[in-house]
UniProtKB/TrEMBL annotation:
Residues 5-182 form the Formyl transferase N-terminal domain. Belongs to the Fmt family. (6S)-5,6,7,8-tetrahydrofolate binds at residues 112-115. Keywords: Protein biosynthesis, Transferase. This is Methionyl-tRNA formyltransferase. The keyword Transferase applies. GO terms for cellular component: cytosol. The gene is fmt.
Length: 316
């Protein structure tokens, strides 16, 4: 069944191992559909998405419609006569006309154990919420967000010091393996899809700017989970004396002073600033003051942060 015509749709690094696995297993990928090249960085260099680069390495034709729902884009995609569409973090909702076209349907590689964390930021959200496990679900795509019947799942433990970045890599690899393990049964009609329990569904929409700001009234555990859940992007932040600090890393520290309000700097240690939380405290060990480069707290306290005083507050 490896001669079925597969159309792959994906955009970021997460999707690349899935595309690579299809090629490695000998499936016929007739084209890759991905987002258009975008300006990146301070110099706004026009940069292709990772899936485009991967597809070009394998000589796979690439389509980059700005919007997949336009008549022109649909005509171009449907002309490829796909037997199966595989999506992985494509970034756009597919129209019904496209979902219904392939004879084997349209399946998605989703980075959560559905029905938990439907939406665009399931990896970040799983860590922020303090989950001890995540995983990948392969499901049929439907018009509702991540609500289709499930074909297969794999569980991936979340370690104590996992970040969004490290979990992203684990789930990306797990998703690629699960995809190629699932395809033979799917194409042979040997898998019975499992409907999701929609009453148990939770959602993980794309992270908003307000969710990146640390709320020091939360527990030390919650602050720690927020920082690692937003690492290495988009990165949590707080403020000090009217300036923004990006908070790259904190360690759980221990009990806070009983009379210290959340956000109070209660100690200055050689390797970090100890900050009171709503319950407990954390040690800020790596930061990026506004207008400066990322640095260790050790370097910060020896330089730009030498005037920081115990008893002053962050987050105001």
């Amino acid at each position: 069944m490896k001669d079925v015509r597969i159309l792959f749709m994906g955009t970021p690094d997460f999707a690349v191992p899935c595309l690579e696995a299809l090629v490695r297993e000998g499936y016929q990928v007739v084209a890759a559909v991905t987002q258009p090249d975008r300006p990146v960085g301070r110099k706004q260099v026009l940069t292709p998405p990772p899936v485009k680069e991967a597809a070009q390495r394998h000589g796979i034709p690439v389509l980059q419609p700005e919007r997949i729902k336009t008549a022109e884009a649909l005509e171009e995609v449907l002309a490829l006569r796909p037997d199966l569409i595989v999506t992985a973090a494509y970034g756009q909702i597919l129209p019904k006309q496209l979902l219904d076209a392939p004879r084997f349907g349209c399946i998605n590689v989703h980075a959560s154990l559905l029905p938990k964390y439907r939406g665009g930021a399931p990896i970040h959200k799983a860590i922020i919420e303090g989950e001890t496990e995540s995983g990948v679900t392969i499901m049929y795509m439907v018009e509702a967000l991540d609500a289709g019947d499930m074909l297969s799942k794999t569980v991936v433990p979340i370690e104590e010091r996992d970040t969004a970045g490290s979990l992203f890599e684990k789930l990306s690899a797990a998703g690629a393996k699960l995809l190629v393990d699932t395809l033979p049964g799917l194409l042979a009609g040997e898998i019975t899809p499992e409907p999701q329990d929609h009453d148990r569904a939770t959602f993980a929409p794309t992270i908003k700017r307000a969710e990146e700001q640390i709320d020091w009234s939360k527990t030390a555990e919650q602050v720690y989970n927020q920082v690692r859940g937003l690492h290495p992007w988009p990165v949590a932040f707080t403020s000090y004396a009217g300036k923004i600090w990006k908070v790259w890393w904190v360690e759980k520290h221990g009990a806070a002073h009983a009379d210290a309000a959340p956000g109070t700097i209660i100690a200055l240690e050689p390797d970090g600033l100890v900050i009171a939380c709503g319950s407990g405290s954390v040690k800020l060990t790596e930061l990026q003051p506004e207008g400066k480069k990322r640095m260790s707290a050790f370097d910060f306290l020896r330089g730009a942060g030498s005037s920081i005083e115990i008893g002053t507050k962050v987050g105001e």
